[in-house]
Amino acid sequence: MLRGGPGNDMVRMKRDNLEEVSSGDILMWTDEYIGLKFQIDGRSREGVDCWGLVCVIYKEKLGIELPLIQGVFVDTTISCLVKVAKAMGEERLKWHKVDKPQLYDVVMLRTGEYSWHVGLFIGKHQMIHVMSGIDSAIEDLNGVQWKNRIEGYYRYVC
Length: 158
Fold this sequence. Notes:
alpha+beta
């Protein structure tokens, strides 16, 4: 059960109706987010990093303003990514880990021992995400690149 906060009724409604959402419906709402440019520390449609994409979608689709967590992801060095993993780990504690993801749940992904990348679950074993070298796109979570990197699925509860 989701707790108070702006937009939670909409989150609950969309999640309750997830089984009725066809793959065509998923593509319709995600179309406006495909192709957003990757930008380190980006938090707007002009450019986003992985957390920035989640923030933009939550704000525009759900009316929920998530913490921006800016100034942590400043480059792609290992030391920076370790700092990102720490910041994402702290943010993750504010979310509820779930076994069965639903629309708008965050997918936490790891590289080695560090979980520093996120995507947004959109149904049908798919996520929308962005990362260095690619614009925002939809990818299959069962694909070779992702299936063994999923740390968990997290639902907004604050």
